[in-house]
Structure formats: C-alpha cells, structure tokens
C-alpha cells in the first residue's frame, strides 16, 4: 500500500519529465557565472516576479538569510511576525550570522501584524536603539494568502518610514493562484504581490515540485550583495544547472496545476469538517490545519501513520497537498481519520507520558 504523505509539499519526487529536463540541461560552473541553465532560470524567475535580477539558492532558508543580510548590516533590525518562518524556523540565522536584531511582533490567526504595532516598533534614530531597516512578510502564511489591502498598508508603512520590504514567498505561487481565481491571470496576480516588495524569496522545492532550490529576486545591486553572502554561507554551487533545470521545468509546467492541490485541500477540509471532534482552521491554498478535541492529536497522528497516512503535528495537525497526492489519496486519508473516531475511545491504548510536544 502506498503511503499518502501529507506532511509537506516538500516531499514530492521529480516527475519523469522533470528528470528528463535535468538530464538534458546544459551545464557550466555557476560560481564563474557560466551555467546556462542557472542563468536561464534566474532570468525566468526575475521576469515572472517583475524584478531586475534573481539568484538561485540552495534553500529558502539560505535565500531569506542572504536577502536579509543584503538589506541589513550589523546592528540593524528587521520587523517580523512572531511566528514567521524567517524568525522562528530558520535557526535565528539573521541574528547569528548577520548580527541583525529581530523585532518580532504578534500576528493574528491569519498571520497579519497590527500596523500600529509595526509603527510603534520602528525605532527613532538614537544610539540607544538598533536601526530599523527592514519589514519582513510571508505569503502564503500557514496556507493563508495575504489580503491585498494588508499588503498595500504594510508597503505604504514601510515606504513612509524608509524601510525596505522583503517577502518570504516560499509559497507565493500558491498565493498567486488563489488570488487569480479559476481561469485568472496567475502571473499578473504574482506581480501584484511581488511588485509591492523590494525583494522576494521563492521556493521551487515546495508546491512547484522541484527537488531542491529557491531564488532571491530583487534589484540588481541587492542581488550582487546577496551573491557575496551566498558564497560565504557555502551556497556557491558549481554545475547547479542540473537543479536549476528542474526548477525551470516546474515554472513552465507546475504553476497552474497548484489549483489542483488547492482543490484537493478543499476536499480534505470539507471531509474533515464533517467529523465530530475536529475543527478545521484553514484551507485556502494547499495547507489544512486541524485542531483535535481532547488532546487526541498525537494519537490520531499515530493511528494515521499505521494506516499509511502521514501528517505533522507541530501546531495542530497539518495536512499539505501536492503533486504527489490525488483524490484517491485524500479519500484514503479521510477514511483513516474517520476510522480513528469510529473506534470506541476506551479501545485506545493510553497515551504514554512524555511524548512529543504538540
Ligand atoms: C519552507 C519555507 C521556507 C524555506 O525552507 P527551506 O526548507 O530552507 O527551503 C521559508 N519560508 C517558509 C514560509 C517556508 O514554508
């Protein structure tokens, strides 16, 4: 029985066509700047996001780090959501490696910061304070596309205070597909998002289905600064065109199909919402969060795993759809969840103490 792996959209395998594109890619040494496949990818993603230049990166973490270090120097500060990836899930790299002070702020359940909190956090020019330089947003956030009005407000706020604006757009293509709606212009929706930001980091290895890689997009001068940091953190890859070709293939073939992932997430969310004991939190793009009553989340996760259905449980149960799952897989996941709640609770083995934090 195949596993239905809904832990993340990072678990996809390259499709046969993607592997063919990788095999056929012309290669060079990218540290010398002469890998044609890397250069083609960088031009493609820069054009798509409407930026002057782009730089292929090993990971989203590396891309955000080099972006933040290109924007900020030692003793500068970036404002960021308390639960944002760049603050919470990247090992504190901006502070550790960049000497950039984070100023984390509370976010509402949709991931939005309060503009008045942001305004109040911007430090005056005074030697007591770090220099506030950068505002960092994330779209999608936990599967939520950011509302246009919020992005506008934040962009205006940043501009009004001389702050640069960086987007952690690991899943910005999911946001663009959701914003565009059925039959809409995804590239126009993408540029409507990215146009508000000075720099944007995009992941190819999430819903787009490439095995490795991200890109930092922005003004040429910023990208050249980021290139120095990328070399320093070990991201100067040589015949990286092998990987860039996969990302290029993903941009050509896997963008519009993200709508399929969103539809699968909807199907899953609707099925889960009908099950007593579960509260579904979000399913606007490809991520579904579920709260499980009575602290039974870890038991449900373990049950699912025994049924060959994988999810994660860091902040509520999380299911992520991607090109490696189909309707049958979603229906199997739903059946496995129903099976858990159909069992008599007394039939459950007691939960061992000291198990994973959840
Ligand atoms: C996945 C992700 C990243 C980057 O992750 P890597 O695993 O380093 O590629 C950054 N931001 C968000 C929101 C992400 O989901």
Automatic annotation (TrEMBL):
Question: What region holds the Aromatic amino acid beta-eliminating lyase/threonine aldolase domain?
Answer: 5-293
> GO annotations under biological process?
glycine biosynthetic process; L-threonine catabolic process
For this protein, the record's SUPFAM superfamilies field holds: PLP-dependent transferases
List-wise, which residues carry N6-(pyridoxal phosphate)lysine?
206
Entry keyword annotation includes Lyase: yes
Which top class of enzyme applies to this chain? lyase
Q: Mind telling me which Pfam families this protein's record contains?
A: Beta_elim_lyase
- Gene Ontology annotations for the cellular component aspect, listed alphabetically: cytosol
One MF term in the entry's GO annotations? L-allo-threonine aldolase activity
Xref: NCBIfam families: GntG_guanitoxin, PRK10534.1
Q: What is this protein called?
A: Low-specificity L-threonine aldolase
Q: Does the keyword Lyase apply?
A: yes
Name the family the entry cites: Belongs to the threonine aldolase family.
**Per the entry, which co-factors are needed?**
pyridoxal 5'-phosphate
Q: What is its EC number?
A: 4.1.2.48
Quaternary assembly: Homotetramer.
Keywords assigned by UniProt?
A: Lyase, Pyridoxal phosphate
């Amino acid at each position: 029985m195949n596993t239905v792996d809904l832990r993340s959209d990072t678990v996809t395998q390259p499709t046969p066509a993607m592997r063919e594109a990788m095999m056929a890619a012309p290669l060079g040494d990218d540290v010398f700047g002469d890998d044609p496949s890397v250069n083609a990818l960088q031009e493609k993603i820069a054009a798509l996001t409407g930026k002057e230049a782009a730089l292929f990166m090993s990971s989203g973490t590396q891309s955000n780090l080099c972006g933040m270090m290109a924007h900020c120097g030692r003793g500068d500060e970036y404002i960021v959501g308390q639960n944002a990836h760049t603050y919470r899930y990247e090992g504190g790299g901006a502070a550790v490696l960049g000497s950039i002070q984070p100023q984390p702020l509370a976010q509402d359940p949709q991931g939005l910061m309060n503009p008045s909190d942001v305004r109040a956090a911007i430090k005056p020019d005074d030697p007591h304070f770090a220099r506030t330089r950068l505002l960092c947003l994330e779209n999608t956030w936990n599967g939520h596309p950011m509302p246009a009005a919020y992005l506008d407000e934040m962009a205006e706020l940043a501009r009004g205070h001389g702050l640069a604006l960086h987007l952690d757009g690991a899943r910005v293509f999911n946001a663009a597909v959701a914003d565009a709606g059925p039959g809409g212009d995804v590239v126009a929706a993408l540029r409507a998002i990215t146009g508000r930001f000075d720099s944007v980091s995009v992941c190819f290895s999430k819903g787009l289905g490439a095995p490795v890689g991200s890109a930092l997009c922005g003004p040429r001068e910023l990208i050249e600064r980021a290139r120095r940091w990328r070399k320093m953190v070990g991201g100067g890859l040589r015949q990286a065109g092998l990987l860039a070709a996969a990302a290029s293939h993903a941009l050509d073939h896997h963008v519009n199909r993200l709508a399929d992932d969103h539809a699968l997430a909807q199907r899953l969310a609707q099925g889960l919402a009908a099950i007593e004991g579960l509260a579904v939190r979000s399913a606007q793009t490809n991520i579904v969060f579920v709260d499980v009553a009575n602290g039974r989340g870890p038991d449900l996760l373990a049950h699912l795993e025994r049924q060959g259905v994988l999810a994660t449980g860091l902040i509520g149960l999380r299911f992520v759809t991607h090109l490696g799952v189909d309707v049958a897989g979603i229906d199997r996941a739903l059946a496995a969840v129903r099976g858990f709640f159909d069992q008599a609770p007394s039939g459950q083995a007691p939960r061992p103490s000291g198990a994973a934090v959840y």
